[in-house]
């Protein structure tokens, strides 16, 4: 980096010093964050610890996937990069990160992609949305593996008498409703292995015997 007169910059998709590391978008969704951001930092030898040159925040909606946020960041970083470059050219060193507030994230692994329906609907939908495009959360239905691509949730005590993992209803205005350990998982996009990704309406129309079956 010393060969560059004013240094190097890096676009990091979090509100640094939060979520330093390789998976800030996925980690924000996994943790259920409603706000994240984009940071342009001056690069240093220590990972994601450089001075902040430009930063903005955005909302993460409940049904947003990592793919959605990657796309948003790619489309909304240009102005921040220009702001950061102008600061560097003027000799502005930016804002020093507070290392005491630093948090870290790590690589995601496919060993955690299996859905445990005993968890809350909130936690499950976070996992589904965070793990799209990889490693993609999944469960089994009729001995077939089903991949989940997008989900939301309903916080409710209704259906407490139903078996966990059971598909309790299909609502065209909401999605495929699945009982969890706490609340209802609303499945919006899913896929059979080797088949196309389908929205919940198309998937249901091709599998009208779903209601009452149980994911495992």
TrEMBL record:
Gene3D superfamilies: Formyl transferase, C-terminal domain, Formyl transferase, N-terminal domain. It catalyses: L-methionyl-tRNA(fMet) + (6R)-10-formyltetrahydrofolate = N-formyl-L-methionyl-tRNA(fMet) + (6S)-5,6,7,8-tetrahydrofolate + H(+). SUPFAM superfamilies: FMT C-terminal domain-like, Formyltransferase. Keywords: Protein biosynthesis, Transferase. One of its GO terms (molecular function) is methionyl-tRNA formyltransferase activity. Its EC number is 2.1.2.9. This is Methionyl-tRNA formyltransferase.
């Amino acid at each position: 980096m010393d060969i560059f007169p004013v240094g190097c910059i890096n676009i990091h998709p979090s509100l640094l010093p939060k979520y330093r590391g390789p998976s800030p978008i996925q980690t924000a969704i996994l943790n259920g964050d409603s706000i994240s951001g984009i940071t342009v930092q001056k690069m240093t030898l220590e990972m994601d610890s450089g001075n902040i040159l430009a930063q903005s925040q955005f909302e993460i909606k409940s049904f947003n996937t990592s793919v959605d946020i990657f796309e948003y960041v790619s489309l909304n970083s240009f102005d921040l990069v220009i702001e950061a470059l102008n600061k560097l050219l003027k000799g502005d060193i930016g804002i020093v990160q507070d290392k005491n507030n630093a948090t870290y994230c790590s690589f995601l692994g496919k060993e955690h992609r299996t859905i445990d329906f005993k968890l809350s609907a909130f936690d499950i939908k976070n996992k589904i949305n965070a793990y799209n495009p990889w490693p993609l959360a999944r469960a089994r239905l009729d001995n077939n593996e089903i991949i989940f691509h997008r989900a939301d949730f309903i916080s409710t005590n209704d259906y407490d008498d139903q078996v966990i993992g059971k598909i309790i209803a299909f609502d065209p205005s909401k999605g495929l409703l699945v009982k969890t350990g706490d609340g209802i998982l609303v499945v919006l996009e899913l896929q059979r292995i080797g088949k196309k990704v389908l929205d919940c309406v198309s998937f249901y129309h091709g599998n009208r015997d779903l209601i009452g079956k149980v994911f495992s």
